[in-house]
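Researcher: Next entry: Nucleoside 2-deoxyribosyltransferase (Tuwongella immobilis).
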Amino acid sequence: MNESCFVVMAIGDQSYNGETVTAASLEDDYSNVIKEALAQARPGLEIIRSDECSTPGTITTDILTRLMHSTFVVVDITYPNPNVFYELGIRHACKPGTILIRDAGAKIKTPFDVSHQRYIEYRKTPAGIKELASSLRETFAWYHAHPGEPDNHLLMLAKLTKFNFPQYGREDQDEMVDNMAELMGMLITTPQILAASTDQDISEEEKKQLVLQAIASEPNQAKKIFKLMLSIGLKNN
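Model: Predicted structure:
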């Protein structure tokens, strides 16, 4: 499975300190600087920007899915765009693999909440693209050498305090495992069932019939066994 990189950055026209940066200029930064440097740093990496999978200005299921599951997320924090920082926060809460970058030539301060975090500055020149690619290559190498290691303060604190993020569906999964274990334990410890299920001289259809007969011969256990089998079957569907 190919590695993926989701690029989060300002997309539409941006205004700050009385200056305007056009959407066309930002598109050029993405295509000819950021994407090019990523391709040089990690050949074969799948690279996609949010507007390539969604309507600009919206948070869709596709964007959220990419924030949650992409191998890497590169976030350009150059401009004070609320969507960018919202998506950065979501990614930081999901998993490691988030890389912050910033246009070194932009005449604007980095927001305080992320100014203390490590970020890579880039310059929009041929030499700058090579330098950005080199820095990204080193960052990718770090992630490869430290799989799963927290890379932001939220995940670091969660690791330190052993905070458990919500794990939806885990309760159902644990219950199914417990039911299967209990069912297998009951089947194995019932001599008639164990003998019928391990008999190599009969067909699979005959085994099923003998197992059912063995279960029926244990009325105290039969109801519980069938209940566990039904519960497991429903959860698998």
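Model: Note for the record: The CA atoms of residues 62 and 127 lie 34 Å apart.
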